[in-house]
Every structure is written in C-alpha cells, then in structure tokens.
Amino acid sequence: MSQLLQHRLELLGQSAHRPLLSQGLRGIERETLRVGQDGQLSRRGHPQQLGSTLTHPQITTDYAEALMEFITPAETDIATALEKLDQIHRFVHAELGDEILWSQSMPGVLPDEKDIDIAWYGQSHIGMIKHVYRRGLALRYGKSMQCIAGIHYNYSLSEQLWQLLAQAEHTRGDAMHIQSEHYVALIRNFHRYSWLLMYLFGASPALATGFLRGRAHQLESLSEDTLYLPYATSLRMSDLGYQNNAQDGLVPPYNNLLDYMRSLSMAVRKPYAPYAALGTRRDGEWVQINTNVLQIENEFYATIRPKRVIRTGERPIEALCARGVQYVEVRCMDVNPFDPLGINLETAHFLDAFLLFCALNDSPLTNEAEGEENTANFAATVKEGRRPGLQLQRQGQSIRLQDWGKELLAQIAPVATLLDQQSGGKAHQDSLQQQLARLDNPDLTPSAQVLRAIAAEGNSFPRFALKQSQQLAADFRARPPSAAERAYFSNLAQASIAEQTQMEQQQTGSFDEFIEDYRSRTSSQLCCEN
C-alpha cells in the first residue's frame, strides 16, 4: 500500500470523517435493444406510452431508435439505484406488448443497414441536433455499431471529502479546481488498472457473424452464425466495437483537466478529409453536425469520462469549463446477460471499492509511453484475458495477469474494509473474494459462462441470446409494476411529452441558425483555450 493511500484511509477511517464515504452519488445507465419474440430488431418507433425520448429523465434511447436507455436517479446507496432500475425494467416490460429486451451487449441478427432506424427526438432544435448527430454517426461508423449496448456507471464522492483531503494535505487552489484534479487523478489510475474490470466482468466473447458486414477480422468461427475468440472477455470493447481511426491519439494521456478539454476542443474543430467528403447536407437536410474529427465532445469513445450535469443546450465542455468535474462515467462495462438488470449489486460493490481505490491511491503523472502500455494491456485483456499465462506490461516489465490482479485486489482490500465499516456488513469484502475466485479460476468469469451457455445452444450466439432474453422478459412480466409504480411512470411519461410539445411550440429561429450557433461555441472563447 502506498503511503498516500494509507494516510487517506486513516483520515477517512476516523469516526468524524467516515460518514463522508456514504455521501457520494451512484447512478446507472443501462442500454438494451427492443426486439421481437424472434430476436429480430424492432422497426417500431419508441412506444409513446413510455414518454418523450428527448425529455424523459429515466427512459430514453441512445443511437438507434430501438436501443433503449434506462437512467436511474443518482443515489447515495447503489442498492437504491438498482431497485429503481428494476422498477424501470418492470414498467417497460409491461408496456412493450409482444416485444422484449435483448439481454446482451452485442446485437443478434441485424437487418440491412437501411432498415436500422436512427433515434428520433422530435422537431425541436435540441431534438433535431441530437438526431443529426446520430445521422453523422451512421455515416462515419455504420448503423450496426449503433446497436451495441453497455452499462455506464456514474460515480462521485462527496465534495466535503475532497475538501477534507485538500485541507489535510495543504493543497492550494479553489475547491472546484482541487475537486476536478482529484477526479483526473482517479482517471489516470483507472486507465492503469481498467484491464482488470474487463477480465472480471467482460461478457461479450462472441458475436453474430453478420454483425461485421463483411469487414476483415481475426475472429474464429464457432458455428455458421457465430464468431468468437476462445479467450476473449469483451469483443464489444475491442477494435471490433466502436473504432475510429480519426480518433487515434486524439486525447493523449492527460495530467490535468485543462489538457483534456484542450484536446477535445481542438478535435471538435479539426477538419478531417474523409468526413468532409461526406458533407454536412444532402438534399437540403443536415446529415452531420460538422465534418471535423468529432461532431461533438461525446463522440470521443473513452472508457471513462470526467462529467458535469449539463444545462439545456449546453455543450459538455462548456459545463466542465464553467463548473468543473462533478463525477466520472465508467463506460467499459458489458451488459451481463445473466443479470436481469445487466449488472448486480455484487459488481456494483466491487466497482465502488475499485473506484475509491483509484481516487485515493497515489496517481503519478502519466506520459505517452505509459498510455501506450495501458492501451496494450486493455486490448490484450479484452481479446485474450482468459488465456493461461497471459502476460501484461507494468512499467516496461512483464507480469502475469493473475499475479497483477491479485496484487491489486490486495491493495483494494483495505478500501473495501473501510467501506464496510461505514455501511455495515461485509458486502464490499465479499465482492472482492468473488473476484479473487475469478482470478484463480477463469471459468468463473462471465465471458467463460457465456461461452458455455452458447455451447449448450448448439454453439449459436443468437440462439442463446434470444433464449436468455425471453427468459428474463418472462421473469420481469411475472413481477408487474404496482399501481403506484405504474402511476409514477405514467405521470413521468405524460409530463415529458408535454415538455417536448412546449419546447417545439415556443422555440424561435430556424434550425440552421441554431446549429450554426451550436457549432460556433467550439471557438477559442472556451476557457480551456484562454
């Protein structure tokens, strides 16, 4: 254990300070495709009874119209967030009719690209720019990529906790700056160690053959309809998922928030010839926001992001510039097909211990060489994580994945103990023991479980995925929402539709003017470029 981690744990372990550990917030965003009973992608629009995808706070869509996204409120207790995610699932299943939700990160058999509908958010300027952004994604990466689902885990610590650390360590600067830089330090450590999450929780070692649309690949054939890699943990997070050559080296390893924002701000303004060849308009309609490396900041596909809740019409980088980092969004987690919600409480407890470890442990400044090493370790784990004797690189030296993983769990253990001392029980420590068992026995990992389940269905990923989706849908429908829950979500839906209608009726100016104003706010006026 580093001296810094020891001192911080001792400080937070004091009875006067330990309650700060329970004052941070957790939230989950779960993506999932709507499909028919046969597993075919839905061609229906977003169900109106679920509300407006533009303004509903908990039920929306992501890239494709059929890719739903469920967003929990931010809670101090992750168990409460999971309970609310369960309520969303039960309400949605009650309203879907004969459709079900796909239980996997990777889609099943997809229709032709022209038959995958892009998410629609109505006629307001805000709704249209969200749709145009997705048109641009379709042009740049293809629509199949817009059918991949994941779990995003939103994590923050109490502002008072950051202030306590700053006071104890005599850190100079205002509170917003100190908090932001602590989160950046967390992110540096996350990049060093996130390969471990892929080994422990990756759940996409196989995919439907047609997903690649004839692209070159190095996967092996498991059956006529299924491709895989025998030791893979998460093909979703490999170069077969979202990839963009234009983004290579886009945001180099960064040591402060200013560097991160500068990189993103430049990328949103940097022309890219292949995208320029596509243009911004076709037949008088916008097809992408701009022809630069990124249309907007969120197009940068990071495994973790510094975040700040944005205001209506505000750009993410504007929010960070103005008000600093509020939380981090972990974006690399696969949907676990064996968990009804895609994630369970045990996984969440480990994430909390892992992220607190990343936040409190010593986080040396990084550089390009370490960034390349981190990227290589992550890539090796998602494609070969369960390979016996797999070697990773740590500061230029080879180390077995299992050995490094056990060292990390030993360092995280006192963090888990502290969290349990505050919350009561042994949930965080028990979760660590479960992960230790997975390091000892790769067959216990979700990716290995998925491959065994696929084998039981004739080596067919689509067949396994459909069977699992049908079973989970039946389980949810066996627990319909209560009258109070149904009323709550119905009221949210109606209010969201009314809000969207009001936005559309009250907006002024043309969409052309709106989008030009939006694009102009990537200029050097941003504080990060001053």
TrEMBL record:
GO MF annotations in UniProt: ATP binding; glutamate-cysteine ligase activity; metal ion binding
Enzyme Commission no: 6.3.2.2
Pathway connected to this protein: Sulfur metabolism; glutathione biosynthesis; glutathione from L-cysteine and L-glutamate: step 1/2
Gene3D superfamilies noted in UniProt: 3.30.590.20
Known catalytic reactions: L-cysteine + L-glutamate + ATP = gamma-L-glutamyl-L-cysteine + ADP + phosphate + H(+)
UniProt keyword annotations, A-Z: ATP-binding, Glutathione biosynthesis, Ligase, Nucleotide-binding
Any Pfam family matching the protein: Glu_cys_ligase
GO biological process, one term: glutathione biosynthetic process
GO cellular component, one term: cytosol
Residues of the Glutamate--cysteine ligase domain: 10-379
Protein name: Glutamate--cysteine ligase
Organism per entry: Undibacterium rugosum
Gene coding for it: gshA
